[in-house]
Structure to design on (382 residues):
C-alpha cells in the first residue's frame, strides 16, 4: 500500500528549459564577459536577449542539447555541475592554444584553485594571443571515458593531462571555479534584486531580470493543487526533493499556490544539501546520491547526519514510497533506498527518455505528472 510520494521538481512540475537556457547563458558569459575570460568582441556584455537569441546561444553552447543529454545520461543532474564541466572543457582547450612559453606559465595556474586572480590572468593572456572556444570539443573529449556522475568532473583532470601534459587535481566538485559558475548562474535565474540576499555576494554582471519569475508549468497549476488536496486527503504524505535552491523552489510554489498545501518540513532543496555537505564534510550529496529524497521523507528536523553516508540505509517498507522524477538520477536514488519509481516524460529528453527509464527498471512510466493522481490512488488501495 502506497503511503508516501516524493516529487522531483524540474522536468516534473516545472519546465527545465529556462534552467538550461540560464546554463547556456552562464557558460557564454564566463567565456565572453570582461568580468571573466573576456573573449567577446563587444565592449559591454549584454544581459537582455530575445527568446530566439537565447535558443541560438543554447544550441551553440550545448550542441543542440547533445551535451546536456550526454551528462544527464551519465547520471549528472545538477545544472551547476553541467555549467562547470562545459566551461572547464573550454578553459583547457583555450590554454592549449597559447604559444609554448605562455602555455607553460598558464598551466601553473591550472595546478592550484582557479579563482578570480587566475581568471584575470587567463583573460590577459587570451586578449594578447588569439584563442577561440570550440564547443564540439566536449563530445570528442569525453568519448574516451565511461565516467559517470561526479566522475565526469574528475575526468577533467585527465583531460588536462592529455591536452596540456600536466598532472592536477584542481578540477573537483564544489571547487573555487565551480562556485564562480554557480554564482553567475544564480544571477541569471533569480535576478539582480535577489542575488545579494540569497548568496551574500553582489552581482558581478548586473542587468539580469531573473527567469525565476516566469516559470513554465508542465501541467495545469490548478490540477496540481487538486492532486495535492486529493492525495493528502486520502492520507498520503507528500514530499518535495529538488536540486533547486530554497528561493527558486519557494517563490514559484508560492505564486502557484502549491506551497500552502505542503508540509515545509518535507520540502528538501539544494540549500539543505549544501549545508549538510559543509557541516559534515560529506560532499557530494546532490542527486544521484539519495540524500535529498531521504531528507524529504524523514523531514528536515530529523537526524540529518544519518543520511549523509555513501551508502545510506534503505527506507523502511520501501514499497510504500513512490519517487516521481524525470531522469536517471532520480531513478538511481529510488533504487538506492529501495522504493518504487515513476518516471514522467516531460524532462529534457521528452518521450525519448522512455527507453532509458525502461532499460533501468522504472516501475511506472507516465506522460506527465498529471497522471500521478490516478496511479497513486490505485496504489493506495493495494
Amino acid at each position: 500500500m502506497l503511503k508516501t510520494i516524493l516529487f522531483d521538481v524540474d522536468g516534473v512540475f516545472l519546465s527545465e528549459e529556462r534552467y538550461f537556457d540560464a546554463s547556456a547563458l552562464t557558460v557564454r558569459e564566463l567565456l565572453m564577459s570582461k568580468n571573466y575570460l573576456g573573449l567577446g568582441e563587444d565592449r559591454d556584455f549584454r544581459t537582455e536577449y530575445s527568446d530566439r537569441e537565447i535558443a541560438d546561444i543554447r544550441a551553440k553552447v550545448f550542441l543542440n542539447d547533445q551535451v546536456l543529454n550526454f551528462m544527464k545520461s551519465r547520471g549528472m543532474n545538477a545544472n551547476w555541475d553541467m555549467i562547470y564541466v562545459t566551461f572547464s572543457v573550454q578553459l583547457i582547450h583555450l590554454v592549449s592554444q597559447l604559444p609554448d612559453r605562455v602555455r607553460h606559465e598558464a598551466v601553473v595556474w591550472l595546478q592550484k584553485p582557479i579563482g578570480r586572480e587566475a581568471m584575470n590572468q587567463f583573460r590577459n593572456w587570451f586578449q594578447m594571443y588569439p584563442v577561440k572556444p570550440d564547443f564540439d570539443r566536449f563530445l570528442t573529449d569525453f568519448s574516451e571515458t565511461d565516467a559517470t556522475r561526479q566522475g565526469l568532473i574528475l575526468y577533467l583532470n585527465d583531460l588536462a593531462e592529455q591536452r596540456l601534459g600536466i598532472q592536477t587535481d584542481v578540477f573537483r566538485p564544489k571547487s573555487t571555479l565551480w562556485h564562480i559558475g554557480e554564482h553567475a548562474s544564480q544571477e541569471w535565474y533569480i535576478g539582480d534584486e535577489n542575488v545579494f540576499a540569497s548568496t551574500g555576494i553582489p552581482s558581478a554582471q548586473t542587468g539580469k531580470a531573473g527567469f525565476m519569475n516566469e516559470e513554465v508549468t508542465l501541467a495545469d497549476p490548478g490540477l496540481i493543487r487538486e492532486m495535492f488536496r486529493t492525495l493528502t486527503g486520502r492520507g498520503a504524505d507528500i514530499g518535495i526533493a529538488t536540486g533547486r535552491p530554497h528561493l527558486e523552489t519557494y517563490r514559484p510554489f508560492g505564486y502557484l499556490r502549491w506551497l500552502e498545501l505542503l508540509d515545509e518540513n518535507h520540502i528538501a532543496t539544494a540549500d539543505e544539501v549544501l549545508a549538510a555537505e559543509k557541516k559534515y564534510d560529506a560532499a557530494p550529496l546532490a542527486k544521484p546520491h539519495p540524500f535529498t529524497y531521504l531528507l524529504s521523507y524523514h523531514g528536515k528536523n530529523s537526524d540529518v547526519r544519518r543520511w549523509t553516508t555513501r551508502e545510506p540505509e534503505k527506507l523502511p517498507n520501501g514499497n510504500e514510497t513512490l519517487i516521481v522524477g524525470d531522469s536517471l538520477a532520480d531513478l538511481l536514488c529510488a533504487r538506492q533506498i529501495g522504493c518504487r519509481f515513476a518516471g514522467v516524460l516531460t524532462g529534457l529528453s521528452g518521450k525519448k527518455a522512455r527507453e532509458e527509464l525502461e532499460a533501468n527498471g522504472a516501475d511506472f512510466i507516465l506522460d506527465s505528472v498529471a497522471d500521478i493522481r490516478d496511479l497513486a490512488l490505485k496504489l493506495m488501495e493495494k
Summary: Strands lie at 4-7, 237-241, 267-268, 321-325, 340-344, 364-366. The two ends are 5 Å apart (CA to CA). The longest helix spans residues 79-96. The CA atoms of residues 11 and 347 lie 4 Å apart.
